[in-house]
Here is the input.
Amino acid sequence: MYTAVIVGCGTIAGLYDDTGTSDSIVSHAAGYHNHDMFDLSGCVDSNKKTVERFAELQNIVHFDTNLVTVLNAVQPDIVSIATPDDSHYSIVSLILRCVDVLPKLIFLEKPACQNSRELESLLEMSDSVNVPVVVNHSRRFHSLYAAVKEKYEAGQLGELLGIDCSYYGGWVHSGVHLVDTIRYLFSTEIVCPDIIERITSRNIDDPTLTIKAKLETNDGSVLFQGWDDKHYQIFDLEFRFSTGRLIVRNFEQQYIWEACIENSVGERVLVPKSMELSMNGKSPMMRAMDILSNYLKTGDIETLHGYLLRDVATSLRSIWQVDSCT
Here is the structure.
């Protein structure tokens, strides 16, 4: 088994997690506990009461407010970093520079870092000590999007004409999900962004932006529709292809395929059609755990292709390009 340590003991780490089933697991702790190749052996948080509560809840032996103390005691194979966004760079830097025995792998929550300087520094450090950094852009691990990507690359969906999406929770913190999903699926950049509206998010320095932009590959349109989550949370995507429209609703809880046909009077219209998108019954977190454990078993960096910090670097740069204009 591979030993794991979680840094940051909040929600995504598993503080309020009840474990759930393999198709609903989202937290790091539940992911490790429910995978037969991992042993969650340590946790760290700057708040003493939080780390004590987390350790008790998750049955973890090694816990402390001092990161280096726990890492040196456990000497983990993998470290999950689930701390606030602005702390990611300093924590990864500390791990790669200050522990006695380096982990073999780092699993980092998004966004990976705050600016281009931090990004380049993390890439250089990761390469120099040969410790890959995998970023938890969860939709890269989602079987629905993997199936869409496969169909698109096989030419079964035709040309991508446009994208409409809705999100909440800040352009940098949450908008990065949308930008990275588009890059992952279609290998295209978002260009010519035009900010239409700003909505205050919970992080006053990270407003939720409504943005009109274009796809670099074919000049297709993209709309990022910001939403004020004081009402409720929304995360929807609508992909318009030359063969029809795919709608993904409410955090992937439902998808609808509408095919383009010609009706009896020669009009091109959309009608609901069945489309089988392979769903393997595992949540994105559990699919991530499979990929991470496979790398630890084989040491083959190709098993991490598409999930590494270098793979999401352009998404971060796109986010920052717009953020600099706010």
Summary: The longest strand covers residues 190-199.
